[in-house]
Amino acid sequence: xxxxxxxxxxxxxxxKIGTSxxxxxxxxxxxxxxxxxxxxxxxLVNQGKEIILVTSAAVSAGMDRLGLKExxxxxxxxxxxxxxxxxxxxxxxEKLFGEYGQIVAQVLLTREDSVxxxxxxxxxxxxxxxxxxxVIPIVNENDAVAIDELKIGDNDTLSxxxxxxxDADILIILSDVEGVFTDNPQKNPNAxxxxxxxxxxxxxxxxxxxxxxxxxxxxMYTKIQAGKIAVNSGVTMLIASGSRxxxxxxxLNGLNIGTIFISKENRLQIRKRWLAFGARIHGSVIVDSGxxxxxxxxxxxxxxxxxxxxxxxxxxxxxxxxSLAGREIARGLANYNAEETRRIMGLHTNEIAxxxxxxxxxxxxxxDNMTLxx
Length: 374
Ligand SMILES: Nc1ncnc2c1ncn2[C@@H]1O[C@H](COP(=O)(O)OP(=O)(O)O)[C@@H](O)[C@H]1O
Ligand SMILES: N[C@@H](CCC(=O)OP(=O)(O)O)C(=O)O
Prior knowledge:
single chain; Carbamate kinase; eight-stranded mixed beta sheet; five-stranded mixed beta sheet; 37% helix; 18% strand; binds adenosine-5'-diphosphate; binds ligand VHF
């Protein structure tokens, strides 16, 4: 488990750099900063570290090339602009990393690459093979083809998925802020930096507005969600400022900068991790406190403990299990669809057949298909 004290021993490191760090306010690339980060990353590889870079800014680079002042609105336009920008991004990295003697590879992923078991295994194998060859994989979402169901939607989540897929030691997210503050520091000058976040409680999630900077996607919200994926996958995550000189070296030297999310000790088994974080969430059930305790002790989710059902989900889809206070306790695959779950909630197992006319399962979610997050 990595804490501030032993970060220098981290070997496999995923670094995510957001659009707000890679571009100027004008929307044009910030070459000065990109060069500095490429130099730092190259130096880490020379020290024997394995580095995966998750980069944003394809859309920004494409907009700049086309002279667009506003983000494209339609999906085909967005995809076209990202396809143009991705080439420009890779050209830049190829050139700069090449100057430091590094070999890079482009890896474009979609949600399917972490949801489908075979694609998950393929992505993992490719990334690990590249690392083995001493190459720096440069990852972005495959924006040109990923729409709706296939889309991860933001690179914070993507970077946490990548970190989870390759069993990284740490994930470093570089942004235009020093870390997570008690409030949006761009709007509230009195907001204070949180040096460490232990439990990702509903209060912590509430610190982040839904939006980010003008050019970024998702703001602090998606970074905290990424924290959930990372810590539950055994990956310690840090958020720090990409404009700070020598930021990566300072982090690895254990300096108290940015915000650290310390990983949980037990890494989820690969299948459970995929179940919890690869799949799209289709709805939630809210359970009573007795049920919450039973789940924590390893029981399956029974209809009797469910108080409320949110959203419309099909049988077999991934849903969240929330406490009465709104805390996410677990995720799992539902044996009943939303409508059936509404009809049987609060009932004992032996009453299900009477209400639904059939009872294919005793449990609403079987414990083998459930990942506890507490
Ligand atoms: N509690 C918070 N702490 C820090 N930043 C916050 C918070 N709430 C919202 N933000 C916003 O999140 C932004 C960073 O996210 P984003 O714009 O998506 O950047 P990136 O391109 O690096 O992903 C900050 O500029 C800030 O406006
Ligand atoms: N895949 C998109 C970036 C999406 C995204 O999450 O952006 P950011 O919030 O800047 O990390 C792109 O390359 O433009």
